[in-house]
Amino acid sequence: MPEFKIQHITKYNYDSPVRDSANKIILFPIVDIYQDVIKHDLHITGNPQVDTYVDYYGNEVGSFTYTDPHTTLVINSKLSINTHPRPLPVDDVASVTQWDELFSLKYIVPYIDFLKQEYFEGLSELFPIVEDVRKINDTPYKTALRFCEYVYKNFEYIKGVTTVETTLDEIWNLKAGVCQDFAHILMVMLRSVSIPARYVSGYICPNRDGMRGTGATHAWAEAYLPGYGWLGIDPTNNCVANETHVRLAVGRNFSDCSPVKGVYKGSAKHTLEVSVSVGYEDHPLHEEKDLFTVSAPKTEETASRNSYERYMEIIQQQQQQQQQQRQQ
């Protein structure tokens, strides 16, 4: 039963004063038999009142408006939480029985949202891969694990090559990205064989294995399995999400679970800094910082071009290094 300390800081810097900053935050951990919140402190610039409600997917959501003119807005979430390991599926029911149960969920709320497939051009290429990866007698649980392994082995983990605006087609063409991209591809594969799949946002906490995404915001998928319920599967690390994964929210995709998003009146230029520190109760925090500079609203075209340019630069650098090594 590990206890984790998590600090999640979101900081907006504006190039001139803005006002009426209205924000929605999903920084309140899910509370159930697998997560106990010991303490949660939330500090926001200007100390605005935070109103909370529970959304359609069961997430606790906060909303606030900071009306005074300001050039900086900081949202500082400090969390102490206990996590508990969950048992793995026993998976002793005949596979045909389990698949029949999944097929019966097609028109049942709340599974409809998590079975709805987001179309992208790469589906025609992905479907044959799905059929090749899955085995005819596999249960849904085994199928989900095979899909997880496929994403882990066939997509390269590269920070900065994608953004939250990157489309499924871009991810599929790049065959690279970060945790949210891996989760989105896995969900497409699961939904294609009638396994309800939902997106999970949260944190992955330190362990001895040095998993990807440790000490930062993280994302993975959950698959609904007959006789078991929702099982977290982390394709970034090719593992079942368990006591080192702290859940903040679930939804259809990233948009439903974004930790912070909002609007304001004033200058369109700002810089966003996100810093996450994660550690055990008796160990120093490990910090990871991501910086984003936004000077104008991004269009799909510019987001795509920037992703490809960054990725191609990385590939070219690798090729140049290999060529230099051969010459030596």
Automatic annotation (TrEMBL):
Pfam families: Bact_transglu_N, Transglut_core. Residues 171-237 form the Transglutaminase-like domain. InterPro entries: Bac_transglu_N, Papain-like_cys_pep_sf, Transglutaminase-like. This is Transglutaminase family protein. The lineage of its organism: Bacteria, Pseudomonadati, Bacteroidota, Sphingobacteriia, Sphingobacteriales.
